């Protein structure tokens, strides 16, 4: 699955024509958000029985055990990137994409207790390395397994999005409406930008009724206007909602979206 990227969000236009800007990266603030999201995730996961972790998640072909294992290995991968940025010693996120998939498959069938312990311990390792980072290290370039070269700060935002989005994928009562508003606003801008760079994305005019913000997506034909909260718009764009809580003028159907995340 794709990864959230750290960087300036598009400057979304409000209905009154003004624009908003993305705040500068603040390591301590992002870590507080990661820690809070992780605690919520652990509270959910700690209730799982062995049968629960073998049940399907919302992701195709993945059980909850797959999702939990992925989140643990993602924490380790993010920690490796932070070590690389801090020390200057190349420390790959994963040995390869194939190795990443093998690790997830190998760990998915463990007991609920083992999965939760791994999730907790890997998150603690990530947070400990995060706290070792000096200010200058966040701007150093590191390379993701997919070959993308980005500032290390992107590993922080990526981890936050992984925890929040995959918590929904566990299908255990946590929903997009519970995502923090700051995360939703930032992530929605990034997702809109990602769709805008794709030739297979439909033209959309998204109206966030709760904030008065408008987002324009794509140029392929006349734009379809879609109304909803920022969280419901983001969930639909990311494939975490069928969009039943969104509205389209004249009752038209929502357009089909390409897979993003």
TrEMBL record:
Occurrences of domain MDMPI C-terminal (ranges): 179-251
Alphabetical UniProt keywords: Isomerase
Residue numbers spanned by region Disordered: 1-24
Database matches in InterPro entries: DinB/YfiT-like, Maleyloyr_isom, MDMPI_C-term_domain, MDMPI_metal-binding, SCP2_sterol-bd_dom_sf
UniProt signal peptide: none
Entries under Gene3D superfamilies matching the protein: 3.30.1050.20, dinb family like domain
SUPFAM superfamilies assigned: DinB/YfiT-like putative metalloenzymes, SCP-like
Record flagged with keyword Isomerase: yes
Pfam families: MDMPI_C, MDMPI_N
Enzyme class: isomerase
Residue intervals of the Mycothiol-dependent maleylpyruvate isomerase metal-binding domain: 35-170
The EC number(s) this enzyme carries: 5.2.1.4
GO MF annotations in UniProt: maleylpyruvate isomerase activity; metal ion binding
NCBIfam families membership: maleylpyruvate isomerase family mycothiol-dependent enzyme (TIGR03083)
The name this protein goes by in its record: Maleylpyruvate isomerase, mycothiol-dependent
